[in-house]
Specification:
Rossmann fold, alpha/beta, about 280 residues, binds zinc ion, six-stranded parallel β-sheet, Quinone Oxidoreductase, Chain A, domain 1
Amino acid sequence: MDVPAGTVLGHEYAGEVVEAGQDGWLRAGDRVTALPLSACGHCPACLAGQPLHCPAFRPMAGGFGQYTLVDQRFAMRLPDSLSFADGALVEPLAAALRGIRKLEPLAGARVAVIGAGAIGASAIFWLRRLGAGRLASITRSRRAEALVAEMGADALLTTGDDLPSRLAAVLGGPPDIVVEGAGAPGLLQQALDLIRPGGSILSLGGCTTPDPILPALAMWKEARFLFSVAYGTSEFQQALATLEAGATAPRGMIGETISLSELPSRFEALRHGSHAAKIMVDPQR
Ligand SMILES: [Zn+2]
């Protein structure tokens, strides 16, 4: 996951166009959000709206700056009713949506979501909107209780003793679906421990170290593992349209807003274990 030194990070952003390239639809003054990437625009993957799978794919982060470059083919106009902060929420919502769309059947399903950060909370948001049944959030603390309730969870359960039985009591049985939305080692096995036989486990967290599971248990349960990465243009469009239609719960993911000059110290604090909800960076602050 390393990037070259000097790379400007920040892949969830929105902003105003100050200068537009030639032969495109963007104009100076347009308010946009964008998939934080560039791709060739004409290969089969690009034509299918899946630029992440384009051979010429490259990331276009840069949100932690006053200015950044976006590929206008992957930019989308921000409706007047939405703020730049709303626009910056489209990316994490789209990432969760892509995974949730893979879950069939979802209607009425008993679902547990591990993790209540941006991805876990966004997963809960889509699960509720797209027809899940009883829905539980599993986290280490009660910190995100209000957020996950607003996003649509029926209950928040903390990890620890008797989690399987507490979860079954809340859901009305063991989960049909477990969404892993935190990316820490051990969570895929925890999901496997919790899932009912024949259930589905969706990995959205993206653990970056080897993370063993017990295959014999997965076999015995005939569990199905699904993985999902980022988004295509359609998930971005649906997330944007859902916000435009009036969904306000995702705004609860924003814990505070800071300036660019405050960013380095906040970043260091996060690296050293400080917990925070999503921090919005406002370069005009
Ligand atoms: Zn392409």
